[in-house]
Every structure is written in C-alpha cells, then in structure tokens.
Amino acid sequence: MASPSVTFPLPSELSFREGAALAMNFPTVHFALAHRGRLKAGETVLVHGAAGGVGTGATQVAKGMGATVVAIVDSETNIGVARLAGADHVIVAGPGWPDEVRSHTGGVDVVVDPVGGDYFTDSIRLLRPAGRHLVIGFASGDIPTIAVNRLLLKNVEVVGVYWGGFVEHDDTIAAESARELARLAREGFVKPVVGGSYPLADAATALAAMEQRSASGKLILDVVTMS
Question: Where is the signal peptide (predicted)?
C-alpha cells in the first residue's frame, strides 16, 4: 500500500496511463532540477538519454521552469521523441556531440545525467562556471569517475539525486513536487511520453524492450483492462 505522504490526485489533464508514467520519474526530475540543481529561468539544461522516461520528463519540467533544453539521444529514430517532449535542440550522440552542443549554446548550466558512462567527462567540460551536473543513474552500466581538480578549476558541482531516499527524511518534498507538476500539467508543459503499454502478463516483453533499447518514453503495464 502506498504511503499517504506520497499519494496525490491525478491531474485532470492527464490520462491514467500518463499518470502511471508520471510516477517516480517526474518527481525525481523535479527534485533534481528545482532542489539539487537550483535551476533558474533562462539557464540552459543538457539532458542525456533524452528519449527515455527520465529524459523526456526532465525536458518537460526544465521547459516549464523557463530553461532552454539541449537533448542528447542515441539514434536518429529518437529525435522525434525528444522534440515531442519539448527540447529546443536535439543532438544524436556520436564523436562530435560536445562540439554540436557548443555550437548551439556555448556551454550549459545544468546537466541531467541518468546515463553515466563515457559522456560524463565531456559533460563536465561543457558546464559553464558554477554549473551543476546532476547524477541520476547509470543506464549505460558504467559508473564514471572524475579528477576533482576539474570541479575546482571551473567552480562546478557534481550533485547526487536520489528522490526516494530524500523523501524518507523529508516527505514534504513529495507534496511540493506534486503541486508543481500539477501546475505544469495545467500549463501544458508536463504530459508524460508513453512509449507503449503492455498487459501485466507481458511484463517480460516490456523489460526486454528496455534492455534492447528499442523503447522510448515510459513503458506502462496495464494491471486492468482499460477502455
């Protein structure tokens, strides 16, 4: 049973499937950007894994907070997904992706990173002075490391983001995120990208799609039949 402290009404602008896609990802990215990243209107946000559930959520929340969003996707087939989420610039990951980011922005203020791996160091280099790199996960399977002199020389931060762990200490953060996400839904910024829905019996198929990176947005399991 869900705790009342993390249970909130579904915004009327969203369907039940979109509501399922809202859970976890959107509170996480709101906590990441508003609290851990201290995002301000007018700043530029770089989003890795921008066609996934966390990435599309981060794009929408950042846009709602007044930021410019540069989205990094792993293939051309996912460009449309990132644009649908509201990204201002979409770049396909490849050897020259940092130069493409610089050509659009000259640098970024906040990095949303649910991927980790090889892109970590280049993302640190792209940060403007006083920039913040938000570590949300390691979808690549590789946990990166950094020489901390890079942080000192540019006055930048690498910030951990673990919404679930923080809520255990202060559950008021969940209510705040719910209010803000409902407002952003009313204003048209937040509308979760549902990449597909599966009957509960086909959960293994959904997991395989995620493992094979053929999924985009958030995949949903239907526990009951929906009309």
Answer: none
pLDDT digits (tens, 9 = 90+) for 143-166: 999 889 889 988 999 999 998 888
Answer yes or no: is 223 within a domain: no
What pLDDT sits at residue 198?
86
The CATH number of the domain where 95 resides is what? 3.40.50.720
Nearby residues of 217 by Cβ (< 8 Å), 6 or more positions away: 21, 51, 52, 53, 56, 81, 192, 193, 194, 195, 196
- Encoded tokens for 23: 């859970």
Q: How many helices (H) and strands (E) does the chain have?
A: 10, 8
Query: 207 in a domain, yes or no?
Result: no
How many domains does the chain fold into?
1
- What percentage of the chain reaches a pLDDT higher than 90? 66
Question: Do 57 and 137 form a contact (C-beta atoms < 8 A)?
Answer: no
Do the domain assignments include residue 192? no
* Overall pTM > 0.70: yes
Range of the domain at 109: 14-186
Nearest to 13 by CA among 197, 189, 226: 189
